[in-house]
Amino acid sequence: xxxxxxxxxxxxxxxxxxxxxxxxxxxxxxxxxxxxxxxxxxxxxxxxxxxxxxxxxxxxxxxxxxxxxxxxxxxxxxxxxxxxxxxxxxxxxxxxxxxxxxxxxxxxxxxxxxxxxxxxxxxxxxxxxxxxxxxxxxxxxxxxxxxxxxxxxxxxxxxxxxxxxxxxxxxxxxxxxxxxxxxxxxxxxxxxxxxxxxxxxxxxxxxxxxxxxxxxxxxxxxxxxxxxxxxxxxxxxxxxxxxxxxxxxxxxxxxxxxxxxxxxxxxxxxxxxxxxxxxxxxxxxxxxxxxxxxxxxxxxxxxxxxxxxxxxxxxxxxxxxxxxxxxxxxxxxxxxxxxxxxxxxxxxxxxxxxxxxxxxxxxxxxxxxxxxxxxxxxxxxxxxxxxxxxxxxxxxxxxxxxxxxxxxxxxxxxxxxxxxxxxxxxxxxxxxxxxxxxxxxxxxxxxxxxxxxxxxxxxxxxxxxxxxxxxxxxxxxxxxxxxxxxxxxxxxxxxxxxxxxxxxxxxxxxxxxxxxxxxxxxxxxxxxxxxxxxxxxxxxxxxxxxxxxxxxxxxxxxxxxxxxxxxxxx
Amino acid sequence: xxxxxxxxxxxxxxxxxxxxxxxxxxxxxxxxxxxxxxxxxxxxxxxxxxxxxxxxxxxxxxxxxxxxxxxxxxxxxxxxxxxxxxxxxxxxxxxxxxxxxxxxxxxxxxxxxxxxxxxxxxxxxxxxxxxxxxxxxxxxxxxxxxxxxxxxxxxxxxxxxxxxxxxxxxxxxx
Lengths: 570, 174
Known about the structure:
The complex is a heterodimer of chains A (about 575) and B (about 170). Chain A folds into three domains: about 10-150, Beta-Lactamase (2-Layer Sandwich), CATH 3.30.450; about 280-435, Heat Shock Protein 90 (2-Layer Sandwich), CATH 3.30.565.10; about 450-570, Rossmann fold, CATH 3.40.50.2300. Helices cover about 50% and strands about 20% of the residues of chain A. Chain A has helices spanning about 5-65, 70-80, 150-240, 240-270, 285-295, 320-335, 370-375, 395-405, 460-470, 485-490, 510-520, 535-540, 555-570; strands at about 85-95, 100-105, 115-120, 125-135, 135-145, 275-280, 300-305, 315, 340-355, 355-365, 410-415, 420-425, 450-455, 475-480, 495-500, 525-530, 545-550. By secondary structure, chain B is α/β, with parallel strands linked by helices. Chain B has a single domain, classed as Rossmann fold (3-Layer(aba) Sandwich), CATH 3.40.50. Helix content of chain B is about 35%, strand content about 25%. Chain B has six helices and ten strands; from the N terminus they run H-H-E-E-H-E-E-E-H-E-E-E-H-E-H-E. An eight-stranded mixed beta sheet of chain B has the order 3-4-2-5-6-7-8-10. In chain B, strands 1-9 form a two-stranded antiparallel sheet. In chain B, strand 3 and strand 4 form a beta hairpin. The chains are: A alpha/beta (about 575), B alpha/beta (about 170). At the A-B interface, helix 1 of A face helix 2, strand 3, strand 8 and helix 6 of B.
């Protein structure tokens, strides 16, 4: 039952009560009407019967009346005495005199009568019929009968009246009980609503708690790395030896890299990390994954791949995929302090993802396993079972964010002491023909020297910085601070590549600009820079190059080269 | 035409009849009433005449009483004419629907009966006055006028008598 139905309940209740009363009243009125109609029919019957008796008497008395046979007339009249219903009868001659008759109840017979149809007077019904022979009026016949008294008639209806009243009462009682049931239902619904509100409030408070935990964790990590960076810079000012300065610089660099990874993880969890999806068959990446895992795991841990033949392609951001696999493998490593086997499986799972075909990638270890409580919280950010300093609690939350962003799911299963299995499900790609196989990436960036780059960035600091980076690479930079300015610049000068921020004020953002440019000149390569944007997935799907902030010179070079190559190919 | 003759006779006879009514004969009213009512209890063959004729022989007072009774009334849907037959020829009796024999002139009434043999004429005889041979005969019993019915005679005259009439009769000759 919905809230709307619950709110409507009082109106329906009223209506049902009203209908019950109406039905009961209708039943009674109908019964009275039927009884009255039956009464009328009975009186009509009696009238007709008395008329017929009078006619018969008149017809049989005609001869005797015509020829003055008073004895015969008396006989005819007296025959009616046997009828208990007849109170009085009389035969009158043509001139009006009473010739023969009787009266049982003592009321004398009228001395003269005029012809009239049956008429009720009190509890008596009287009729005067003419006596005729062949059209010749010979006299009149008078009959008076008793009508059944009202009490007797009512007693006849008493039984049926009681039944009707009981039925009416039943209807009213049913209506009332129905109303009571509706009332109880309404109260129950109110209770359910109240409980739902309480549950929602509890959920909200849990969310707030998780958020607080998240913010606290991030602040803590950032404090640490800011501390490292600022103290590193401070020490660099004082250090005289170039080797020491170089070490300090590296420390600052590491701290900043750590910060960038941290935000990447956070964004992945929030599903806002710019994904660069590629269609890939996981089986083709075993070599690369083996390399990756060999570096991250200890020597006493062996990795075994069990990849099914004819694996379907999936669409994932490969760098995120690698990180996710690494995060899970590191957890396995830490769960097996005495070494063991990590088993990575991949197989097709038809219809496993809400009816859609999917590919399942599982990572199983022989470690400590995981308890039910830890399973519940495993994907929450900053939840960790490791000792302080051994993990950030962001590993599995990155896995969670990454699989969700890829349209898949992740689950964790395990028993304490018997190992843990993490299973990721990814939807089967709709583009099996465009399989991107590992190893086809450009290894040597094409020179971007002399490239005329239009830089579109509304933030002046970033505009300056990226401009310097581009100049460092030997590009010729044309700067614009909005999409409109960029279009102006394009009209004025020749541009080889557009590098634009994604989020910009004004009516047109980076994606709009890219689309506009594609419409004008489909061959002009466009690379979009973004920290985070809800539209990154869209941009990636539409085939624009994406440059994730923060980025370094190498990444910039690679992205620009890729974009140029793609433009030359297409 | 016989009809015309009767009508004329009626017009001439009635004032005479009422004038010569015998005030000392109280049975005249009763007999006139019976004659008048008889028409309702008897069915004549055929469609019936335009004028319903009641012919009275020998009793001017009864004829006069009948005329008073039958004024503006119908018998079997027809106007009633009353005729006194004393001055008519016996053959004219065949044109009557009811022929009352008052017992005045025995020979003349015998002629009249002969004239209507087999004809659809209801003959009524006043037995106390000496008349006889009618389909219906009047007679007095205990001071009341009673009826005698001859069903065979009725059949001979092709007349149908109502059972009510037969019931009301004191004497019934099959």
